[in-house]
Amino acid sequence: MRQKAHGLLKRRCNGAVPARHKRPPERVAAGPNQVWSWDSTYLPLQVRGLFVYAYVFLDIWSRKIVGWEIHERESPEIASQCFERTVVREGNRPLYLHADNGNPMKGISMLATLYRFGVIPSYSRPRVSNDNAYSEALFKTAKYVPSYPGYFASLGDAQLWFADFVHWYNTKHRHSAIGYVTPEQRHKGTDKELLRHRNMTLFYARLFRPELRSHLKDWIHVTEVVLNANFT
Description:
The chain is an alpha/beta fold.
């Protein structure tokens, strides 16, 4: 009380209101190569405190990993080169490339490359990982598969493991969000025939086992995938 009386007790709060960032616009993909998302994640080496970084580009419609590289550091220059090589290998480019607000994503090198290819950049809100949910989910899958070693002996060791992971993810992994087909099947459009065969099997199952009709649901081909869906 004495301190307050002498004006020695000061408020530590300056009354500033936390900044509110506008929700990013929806990005709707109705087919492959319309919306890609990308991010980088660290992969720890066996030497404590050392890491390598995986740059990964994902088609959100098919969930296919369309491009990836692993480097010893993060930078806008490396990111832009990775994107350019991915476009060349795929023979296609997206309409939108979504990323978070990190320096490699918003650096002048990356922006110049996107402008040159006619790709519209799209960004998450600062410190809101859900705005780049597809890339975040991919990294979680990568680091929780049984084969993930936890640590890598070298850059080359990480590259070999990640190459195996990408092959498995694109061609073997049946993704629950796209009807339990592989990203490669969906990207190429062969998933429609597969789902048609499944539904034909269900048709005959219902025909000969009427009691199962209420339990057997048709497989549905997902026609649109939305990034940052606005449900309000």
